[in-house]
Amino acid sequence: MERFNYPLNIIAADDPYPTYKWLRDEDPAHYSQTEDVWVLTRYADCSAAFKDWKTWSSQRRGNLLNDLPERVGKTLGTTDPPRHTFARGIINKAFTPHTVASLKPKVRALAQQLCSRAYEKGAIEFVEDISAPFNAAILGAMFGVPDRDFIALRHWLDDFFKREKAPPGQEPPQAIAMRELRGYLANHAEQRQAQPGDDLMSAMLLAEEGGQQLSFDQVVVTTMTFFTAGFESTNNLFTNLTYALALHPQVYEEVRADLALIPAFVEEGMRWDAAAQGFVRTPTHDVTLHDKNIPEGSQVLLHIGSANRDEREFADPDRFDIHRTDQRHLGMGQGIHFCVGSPLGRVMAQFLFEELLPVSTRWEIDLSGVARVTTPNFRGFTRLPLTVA
Ligand code: HEM
Q1: Percent helix, strand and coil across the chain, each rounded to 5?
Q2: Atom of ligand 1 at shortest distance to CA of 274?
Q3: Whose CA is nearest to atom 37 of ligand 1?
Q4: What distance in angstroms lies between residue 337's CA and the mean position of ligand 1's atoms?
Q5: Residue 242 covered by a domain
Q6: 8 A C-beta contact, residue 238 and residue 130
């Protein structure tokens, strides 16, 4: 048999999970020559690597799969301790349980409004009609962006995640969006510096750790990370959950009849079809794993999507089971980079489905109109036509 090479675009396949299983069983420390990336697919290996930042560095991740060079070494996701510890300490002071609690009324009101409109329309495009406006508005509210700027914000975020190449001689829409968003946020940060408000950007500008503060540029770049990480991950989570419900009508009926099951449904969705399918680390020295030598400085994908289906960790892992008791998924990461937005992401998912399920009378997806996200790390949909009534 010709040597198998893990292709990065496999995560946009309808069902990549049998291939992940093959890798876990046959080649758990896989080197893909075509992509020049190592892929760890077993839960125990990924979990150990997430927890051991001294061996598995995030510092150079931006050069690897998915980041932009100007952000590397400045964002939470591309730093190691002590820089990461300092920045995360500041974020933890600025982004507290109080921040999430104070956003809840806005999350609830917006979810209600979008879902009742969905019910009136009957057939919606889930991303366009619900997920994108919901995410942009909540992130905007979190950072004190005025409502009138939400539309521009949404367009920049949409363009930022486009994957089509620009025609020769033209600036890619991603670069334009990045520049505009950065300019906008820098301007916004200047205003907040002059006149602090009750928002996360003001809190980041003011927070101190050991007598030190984040630089102005770090606040701007960190805010961009919040917008991009928050916007894409939540969209992928919501679309995957919506799709999973259509594939499992009995789960739809059960959860709709008892909305208290929604948090368990959300957790199982995060495990079963992870929105963030993997993150990259760089070993700081050679590592031997499953008889392979993974060289220092190589790029290694910790495959969350596969780890979450590892039969060595989860009973009957391919089954979508909202009652499972072995819920230790890696969908929000693990260790020092564990998702800072997880409490907010969970609340948003919970409120959204609490509003959408009761107004729905059906849950059908028009498969001819779906389009999947095409990035090497994230799995979800950019278009998901859904009929709810
Ligand atoms: C709801 C769906 C979400 C999922 C599935 C998700 C997933 C993840 C994962 C797996 C990581 C770990 C990355 C790594 O180890 O390198 C992470 C980190 C991060 N997430 Fe999320 N996330 C979600 C929502 C959000 C939201 C709503 C925000 C912001 C408002 C956010 C901001 C971040 C940031 C800033 C980091 C970097 C943390 C660090 O490196 O210390 N995420 N996320």
Answers
A1: 55, 10, 35
A2: 5
A3: 77
A4: 8
A5: yes
A6: yes
Hey, what are 76's tokens?
């939470």
Which is the closest atom of ligand 1 to the Cα of 75?
40
What residue type is 140 in one-letter code?
Answer: G
291: left (phi over 0), alpha (psi -120 to 50) or beta: left
Ligand 1 center from residue 331 Cα (angstroms) = 9
pLDDT in tens, the chain (389 residues): 568 999 999 999 999 999 999 999 999 999 999 999 999 999 999 999 999 999 999 987 654 444 556 666 778 888 999 999 999 999 999 999 999 999 999 999 999 999 999 999 999 999 999 998 999 899 989 998 887 887 788 888 878 776 667 788 888 888 888 889 989 999 999 999 999 998 999 999 999 988 899 899 889 988 988 888 888 899 999 999 999 999 999 999 999 999 999 999 999 999 999 999 999 999 999 999 999 999 999 999 999 999 999 999 999 999 999 999 988 999 999 999 999 999 999 999 999 999 999 999 999 999 999 999 887 888 999 999 999 99
Structure tokens, 117:
């409109």
Q: What is the CATH number of the domain that holds 377?
A: 1.10.630.10
Residues with CB under 6 A from ligand 1: 58, 76-77, 88, 225-226, 229-230, 233-234, 237, 275-276, 279, 331-333, 337, 339-341, 344-345
Number of domains in the chain: 1
CB contact at 8 A, 50 and 40: no
DSSP bridge partners of 365? 386
pTM of the predicted protein model: 0.94
**292: how many CB neighbours lie within 10 A of its CB?**
14
Residue 3 inside a domain? The answer is: no
Q: Residue 12: give the domain boundaries.
A: 8-387
Q: Is residue 161 part of a domain?
A: yes
